[in-house]
Amino acid sequence: MTALATRPVTEEAVRGALGAVLDPELDEPITDLGFVRSVAVDDGDVTVHLRLPTSFCSPNFAYLMASDSKDAVTALEGVGVVVVELDDHHDSDLINAGLAADAGYVGTFRHEAEQDLDELRATFRRKAHTAAMERALTVLLRAGSPLAEGGPERVRLGDLPAGRERDALLRRREALGLSRADDAPVLVDHEGRPPAPGSAAMFLRRARATRVSIDGNAHFCRGLLRTRYEGSGADQRPRPEGAEPTDHHHLLPLSPKES
Amino acid sequence: MYTKDGESYYIVDAHVALWDARPENQRNIHGKQFIDCFYDYHRNLSPEGEVWSYEDYLYQGGRRLLKDLFEDGYVDHAIFQPAALTEFYVNGFGQTEEAFELARANPTKLTYNHNFDPRNGEQGLDRLRADHEKMKFTGVKLYTAEWHGESRGWKLTDPWAVRYLEACRELGVTNIHIHKGPTIRPLDRDAFDVADIDHVATDFTDLNFVVEHVGLPRLEDFCWIATQEPNVYGGLAVAMPFMHTRPRYFAQILGELLYWIGEDRIFFSSDYAIWTPKWLVERFVDFQIPEDLTEYAPISTDQKKKILGLNAAKMYGLDVPAELRLPDADETATGPRDPEAADLASV
């Protein structure tokens, strides 16, 4: 119910709240990815429609983003009834019914779900840090920095050049509760542990495969969304990590499908 | 066979399908969603001149397959990797009888791999044995995310799955292709998890496990298990077309694979009819790692020859002309197979 003292929420505020909802795997806000299809506000009552790149995107991720969206909007001042619906997914009916009933993930998927989504979130928080760490070190390596050549395990946060990669790494470290001090080593796992002596190269190589994977997935998902929903590219914010010269190639003409 | 600049390449397309996704074969909305998803992959990753109409995409038939692969597509041999998807399609997605008959009529060109679902229990085991007696296949394509009544997925480590793998061993079905790609279930673990392959590859060292789609979107997890197992391979289906839209990403996938699993364990696949082999073969032969990706060594012509056909030919015992063969690389059975192919080798 809308309290008398507060003004009804605005669409802008709703979109702002949705900007705090991340796709855990791609580590980006759903607003930047173009996953928010529409926002309608009617005297404080809010209806949000979400869309994903394919009908078969993992339902656990789909549910997580939809549920986080509902929580983010519900927390706003001046909000009445909140409806969040996921469109065109193979589990849309199940997920939308679960959201409407606030059944939670386990309540929504019943026998198929054994545990909550916290572990999934934690896994991808760790991967996001791994990728950010590798990006920061690879910048040094590609530039032929003697720092990195002397062994990536020797590089400290204070050695990293100021910029996007360093800022991103600091944010990921904060999310994991890791030190952001200048003298903290960069090459660490999600608990701040450095690699065992002699295994720094392998540690960084594994991190690189993670980064390649995440960047590739992020751009592929963006591209599939643009293909699936004509015009959705206008809602996407470019992603510099893993970007390619071909990223803004014009879309192929679509032949109409029967509905 | 493809020839360019005086080099000839023996081509094996290690993952093709003969599917029927026409509306009359769609059991429900999911059948439509599934082929629409494939069509979006096709539209998103294909060069403009290679995009088919939606109608052409729903069904090709054997005659068109032969033309696209062997007349136009340079392919010497192709391997059917059928997905049943009987919950989505009345007569299944992959057309078993049609594909098997086509392979029987063209034995030098086509190999028919079969499939099974361990959730069919004892009856399914009998069926597998009977099918094998009739079809004599040496490989299967497994789709662990397939729906089955109340179940929406299974793992290679499930007790019934292990019994089926034991049956494969008895029957001489040595090539186990597993789809680890766009998938649906199991819910709770990351749906693309390859951990079950790690287990069975250790328990069944006499079987080959070919992970289709090289574990994308979990390339790193795939590389990590594949580097520890001598009998795990990677199929490039779905990865190949990134050459067109995302060449830098493709270069990195390739760079990672060469480093972790080595040049002898990677298979070219078009994933026909999602894409056709012609343009993929042409572009792969011309492909090179971009110069500024200094963390990877360039890819050699011999490595391309192995990936495009020689590796799969070896697994399937295909008769490669003597002048086109190459020796195996001198790589370790486990651990990063080609550490020199990347930076940090000496760190």
Summarize this, please?
Chain B: This is Amidohydrolase-related domain-containing protein. The complex is a heterodimer of chains A (259) and B (347). With 259 residues, chain A is mostly helical.
**CATH 2nd-level architecture of chain B:** Alpha-Beta Barrel
Number of strands of chain A: 5
Largest sheet, strands/sense/barrel of chain A: 3 strands, mixed
Q: Which oligomeric form is depicted?
A: heterodimer
How many helices of chain A?
Answer: 9
Low-confidence stretches of chain A: 249-259
Total beta strand runs of chain B: 10
| Largest interface, C-beta closer than 8 angstroms, per-chain residues | A-B, 53 and 55 residues
Count the DSSP helices of chain B: 12
CATH level-four homologous superfamily name of chain B = Metal-dependent hydrolases
The structural domain count of chain B equals 1
Q: Mean pLDDT score of chain A, rounded? A: 89
Distance between the termini of chain A: 38 Å
**What is the chain-wise order of helices and strands of chain A?**
HEEHEEHEHHHHHH
Describe the structure.
Chain A has 259 residues and is mostly helical. The radius of gyration of chain A is 21 Å and the shape is elongated. Chain A has nine helices and five strands. In chain A, 44% of the residues lie in helices and 8% in strands. In chain A, helix 6 (118-142) crosses helix 9. With 347 residues, chain B is α/β, with parallel strands linked by helices. In chain B, 38% of the residues lie in helices and 11% in strands. Chain B is built from twelve helices and ten strands. A five-stranded parallel beta sheet of chain B has the order 6-7-8-9-10. The longest helix of chain B has 17 residues, at 29-45. The model of chain B is unreliable at 184-191 (pLDDT under 50). The interface between A and B is large, with 53 and 55 residues. Chain A: This is Metal-sulfur cluster biosynthetic enzyme. Chain A: Residues 11-85 form the MIP18 family-like domain. Chain A: It comes from Phycicoccus duodecadis.
